[in-house]
Design brief:
Length: 121
């Protein structure tokens, strides 16, 4: 395995960071909006119910994305890093994977918020 392959290094580091961050958020969930850490968007900070849901959900999604990053790291030796098209494809894939926890959490949070808003009426 080529440990100098940029895809390996990037995917491995991102995977480990995402998995550790997700684990920390599950193990030590952020308290109601703070300045240190947590999933912080307008919808997540709308109320405490949304906040707690967003923290748990985003942590799980981060861990899923981290596992995919690690799979990419394992597959990186077969990805040619000298072809421009391949490099662009992998960079786009990494970017989309970085966005996955945010997009999926916002989608789930919107559904969760709508469901709970209807209960109040």
């Amino acid at each position: 395995m080529d440990f100098t392959n940029p895809f390996f290094i990037t995917s491995l580091l991102l995977g480990l960071i995402y998995i550790i961050a997700g684990w920390l958020m599950i193990k030590f969930p952020p308290k109601w909006p703070n300045y240190l850490y947590g999933y912080r968007t307008g919808r997540a900070m709308k109320n405490e119910l949304n906040w707690n849901f967003a923290q748990r959900f985003s942590a799980k999604e981060m861990m899923k994305a981290g596992m995919v990053f690690l799979l990419i790291a394992v597959a990186s030796p077969i990805i040619p890093s000298d072809d421009t098209t391949t490099v662009v494809t992998v960079v786009v894939l990494l970017f989309l994977l970085m966005m996955y926890p945010i997009i999926s959490t916002e989608k789930a949070l919107k559904k969760f918020d709508n469901k709970n808003s209807n209960k109040d009426e």
